[in-house]
């Protein structure tokens, strides 16, 4: 019996070693993927895919992004498509779980054979597939997250950011506070991940000496009591909230509960007032205090933004999007600013596909993206040059009013994510009719 | 050393002896464990290789997932099914394994994979000894409670040390794929699935061998009656801690395989729900047999997948869709346990028995 045991053990060991000779972390740089291909493009269709949280904790609110994508693509398809090709839009549910994101993204690339990825959502999720997408040569347009990581053209030549990154946005917030509220005592409430650290880096460039309290929250813990108490204790009369919508709402409710009334300055990710109104009513109902008027709680909130919002129904793009939403959206909930976010992404994807021309390859899409004049729905300039994949480069500062349209306190300004200046930006915003994003 | 033959405490299975002399099954059982288990593992490995050569990259990932879940559940099987200690915190050991692997790949890129795997086993065994020693005096629900605390508390470490552990976004890294010499023959996803299965099978062989030997007998004696075992001279505390250690080691190794396969370690993958799912999958697969670990792992990966597909195809509200995969799993668990108390393994052996008798 000795011989087979030895032979087998040897075989197993050899196989194990063979599986893993060489350092596990030593990844040799393979040749760049061939972009001169038209994977996912046929004579009459282009397949575009994305990963989104359709179920799970992040789904309320964010599930609207893919509704917006689908509605705009349906509209494009009904108006001649892209040079006669229809857009097949595939959305996969990743439950905001990175392990699932990896699985569904492989599915999208290998099984669905998508031509490009549009607006993959989330920092913890998308950061786990960005290497894969770039290695496979899949254009990774308009990532739905403000992390700085999407803007690394050397490392990730095919990934392009979309929303203004957290540092740029916080710099603009900081400068606004320093210029307009010079005596303020600033408190900062932030999410304990890159949203928080990147925002703090920007904020500190302008209001370092004014900050009296910095409080972090964990997205898994919905009790903001200690943080809000600490902000009040420190005497903060302006609170900058680098939070997702649920935590903006929790902050407002907790402050209201203890009778603390700071001026809120909220980042675009947490300031979708339509979503906030819904969340506030929902949380109030859970606490048994339905009589709190949600809109009144938001009165006077200052926020940064870079897209047109549903609170300005006269904006020509919002008019178009409302019409598209009514006709095509497969959803019973009202259109929110998160829907608009998805619709703008889809519009810009369609613009780039139109510009890429009839002979569509991944390379021609990338060329079109990098040379595109993005005049369209956006309220601030958009960067997608070979050197800068940063997306929207700045923000407006506005104030919410319950009974009225929001008031623009400061027009669009742009900046960089380092220590550069903040400058005013000229933005050209043509009407939808003047922008080419569909047509045979 | 006493003989390494299998000493199952259950009644011997009826042997098929119709035609063909003593029968292949009988001869198979007569082989010593040290030959039988590696042979079975080799056969399983070949089957996995054959399977991945037919499937696409997305499916390879799921096959790999079955592999590491199987290892984790098998470790739990040893602890719960054989030594009678209930742990609700095995996700914590997967967490330790995954992060050890991630940190090794990120900070020691020159270390080969097998060394990383070995180091992970060492680290998680060390954690297992600590936890096992602290909890060896606890029984039943108290032990379960203590291990549950571990599963709840440990992932919070990532937020405490964001510089090292990447905060709630976790760590991401790339691992070496299929060697260039095999380009075109084996895809990276096949290669990774095979590496995970090889590791899992080696782990399983160790677990099965342990179970078939003296330690396994001692553990079963403890499980059935602790006082009687102590009177018979079995060192109760040491045996319990050893079981916990081996089980923690397999959990850690499973976590390392997951990290290797997915190229990431994220705290949100190691919630309490994972620990509870492992336990539920073990019960569903069948307590008391290593086959139970396999069926449990298959159910864990595919039932959830089908549940999600079902939820999407029915276009339900988010609240319903969120919970449907869990409900699906729960109903399956209840049904299987009601009809076949030995779990899926019991069901399959019963069916196999029926077929044999019907011939």
TrEMBL record, chain A:
Residues 413-432 have a biased composition (Basic and acidic residues). Residues 46-391 form the Leucine-binding protein domain. Keywords: Signal. Residues 412-440 are annotated as: Disordered. Residues 1-24 form the signal peptide. Belongs to the leucine-binding protein family. This is ABC transporter substrate-binding protein. It comes from Streptomonospora mangrovi.
UniProtKB/TrEMBL annotation, chain B:
InterPro entries: ABC_transp_permease, LivM-like. GO terms for cellular component: plasma membrane. It is found in: Cell membrane. CDD domains: TM_PBP1_LivM_like. The keyword Protease does not apply. PANTHER family: HIGH-AFFINITY BRANCHED-CHAIN AMINO ACID TRANSPORT PROTEIN BRAE (PTHR30482:SF10), HIGH-AFFINITY BRANCHED-CHAIN AMINO ACID TRANSPORT SYSTEM PERMEASE (PTHR30482). This is Branched-chain amino acid ABC transporter permease. It comes from Streptomonospora mangrovi.
